[in-house]
Amino acid sequence: MGVDVLNGVLILGLLFALWLVLAGVTIVRGLSMQRRAALTAAQSTKLSALIDAAPVLPLVVREDMRIECPDRLSQWLGLDGAPRYLDDLSPGGGDGASGLSRDDLSALSDHVTAVRRSAGRFSQLVGVAGSHRVLRVSGAPAPARIGGQGAVLLWFADVTEGMADQIEIEAERDRAVTAFESLSALVEAAPFPMWFRDRGLGLRLVNRAYVAATDSDDARAIVAAGTELVEPVAGISAAEAAGQAQAGGAIVQRAIPVTISGARRMMRVVDVPVGRAGVAGFAIDIQDAEDARANFRRFAKAQRDLLDRLSSAVAQFGPDKTLRFANQPLSRLFGLDPAALKEHAEFARFLDRLHSQGRTPEVRDYPAWRSERVGWFNSAEVNEESWQLSDGTHLRTVAQPTPDGGLLLIFEDRTEQVQLASARDTLLRVRTATVDNLFEAIAVFAADGKLQLWNRRFRQVWEIDEAVLAGHPRLDDLLKQLADRLMRPAQAPLIQEIIRAATGERRQRAGKIAFRDGRHFEFAAVPLPDGNALLTMLDVSDSRRIEQALRDRNDALEDADRVKSAFLSKMSYELRTPLTSIAGFAEMLATGYAGELPAAAVDYVGAIVDSVELLGRHIDNVLDLSQSEAGTLPIERVPTNLTEVAQAAATAAIKLAQDNDVELAVELAPSLGAIQGDPRRLRQVLDHLLANAIRYTAAQRSGDARVLLHGDGNMKRARLVISDNGPGIARDKQNRVFDVVSRRSAGGEDGNTGLGLPLSRQLVEGHGGTLSLVSEPGEGTMVTVELPRA
């Protein structure tokens, strides 16, 4: 029994020890879990603080549409309590004063459903009712550990300020677009050319006035072609001038001549750098201003020159009453030092100087007299008076107020009046003698039509008595008496009208008249400064006879040319009929129709066929040339690939080049392109030109003879060039290479008709193109064919 008790106590002790061990382990694990819970709580607090401070707030939408979000999001949405379901984001069905609107919530729900189905992402802008707050919602599938299966994680970001900035930017953009459109309309409507260049100084924009100034109708074509309004001046192009403005960052102005609509106009061209965008420019027509300025300068200079050359003394005072100009007679008349006149003395001091030298009238009250003369500046009328000087000099003084407030003084020395009158009489006699001995017939008519002056030649031409002219008849009465002397009396009113235009309209006009006796005259009516008209008549009878003889000779040559063309055309047609028969019989013999021919006969028949073919080509050339000269040569207008035509002609000419030991080179650029033309006629042109170049080059050179066929073009024209290194053509013979007769005589040596170049030019001109020839003796010859695209 005692042993049993002892065993029981031992078991209890072991159980108690085991319990103590388990309790210790439990306490240690509890303390560890407590520490981990405290750390997790601290981390959770930090995360909550970060979420509350973050500009983006999360919202988790579970599969049953329950949501979890921070309280701060409820504040953004203006909600009173924390929402539990997605529909709680719009209290009152979207009609309340907070939360999301019904449309925004519906769209958000659709996006959430789409994310669950496709696991995609979305972004949406929503507004908060009752405020200006705008939120951007971005959604994506939520991790399984956050919301479970089918949860969606939404991020709300407050973009109110960004949207305000965006609205302001869009408003600013709208204002800028409106301003740009207004500015563009203003530039387009500007009456003067305007343009804009990019940073590379290439044209990018031109206005309507620019298009009109360049005689075009398409601004895009101008920009594409880079058509400049302003020509290079002093080696500086328009783009270079704009580059100077761009490099210097300052406006560059130039006054240069520009051709607009065929007229030369002075324009002020202004290049304005517009920062990094490029350079803007405009051109203002200053031709009228330049003309006015030049006319004013010429007028002022002419006035000064005129005043300086007057025999009368002249002094000009400005609005400030200072002396601006004094001519030489003034210093001589008053004995003044020219250097003193350049001091620009005031008018009162000028009178004082004259008074001190005794060159003013004797008056009782000189100060009052001087003050009265100073009042001339304020007068609106011309003041004229006589000054009797103490030395017996008599001056006629005229004071003319000028429009600018100044005064013009003119002093005329009457003491020399007799001498001037005598000189005038002498001058009139000299003039009369000079006019009376002129070869031309001259007459002067007054504004009222009366004859004032005539010379001896005028009286002889019209065969009229001196007594009739001495009566100074009127022009209309005089022409009534002289009309029967004209070949066409109806021309008499023409002379009267021309003289009336010279006297009344101050316009110079000219004409021609013929007399019944065969004389021809050229006449002109010239307005004179005194209001009269000068009628001059020049006998051109001899020149008219020579002109008529030359005209008759030209008509005869043209008739001969037409007869020649008609003869060639008729003979060509007449020769074709027997030639066709010869060709037919020769081909029959060659094919054995008349039986088998001997070997020698076969060669003879082949030579006949070749000769008939050559003669046929010659006749075709003559016919084509005759039709071309008569304007009846038919030319088709179909799309023609010039590259194919040129290549075919070169291929056909290779055998001829090889037979003559000539190197034939072909260079056809892709820009050669196509035109509207007749491919057969163009092939005919190239065949003639290549054959001509090969034959003449081979005849004069050996071993290094070379012919080049080159082709290129641009948007407007296509160009074909055939050049050789042959002997060339002398300058005195180049003008005759396109003449049929000259070419025939030159080409007879090698069997060529010599019609190739003349016919080629006719065919090219029939296409609206040109054929030109450049040659240097010893250097070779180059023939250029240019054909228009349209």
UniProtKB/TrEMBL annotation:
Where in this chain does the record put each Histidine kinase domain? 570-790
The record, for PROSITE patterns, names: HIS_KIN
Keyword set includes Kinase: yes
EC number(s) on file: 2.7.13.3
Sorted keywords for this record are: Kinase, Phosphoprotein, Transferase, Two-component regulatory system
Q: Which Pfam families match?
A: HATPase_c (PF02518), HisKA (PF00512), PAS_7 (PF12860)
Q: Which reaction(s) does the protein catalyse, per the Swiss-Prot or TrEMBL entry?
A: ATP + protein L-histidine = ADP + protein N-phospho-L-histidine
Any one Gene Ontology MF annotation carried by this entry is: phosphorelay sensor kinase activity
Q: Which Gene3D superfamilies match?
A: 1.10.287.130, Histidine kinase-like ATPase, C-terminal domain, PAS domain
SMART domains hit by this protein: HATPase_c, HisKA, PAS
The family database entries (InterPro entries) matched by this protein are listed as: HATPase_C_sf, HATPase_dom, His_kinase_dom, HisK_dim/P_dom, HisK_dim/P_sf, PAS, PAS-like_dom_sf, Sensor_HK_Regulatory
Identify the enzyme class.
transferase
Matching entries from SUPFAM superfamilies are given as: ATPase domain of HSP90 chaperone/DNA topoisomerase II/histidine kinase (SSF55874), Homodimeric domain of signal transducing histidine kinase (SSF47384), PYP-like sensor domain (PAS domain) (SSF55785)
Report the CDD domains cross-referenced here.
HATPase, HisKA
What's the domain of life for this entry?
A: Bacteria
Protein name as it appears in the record: histidine kinase
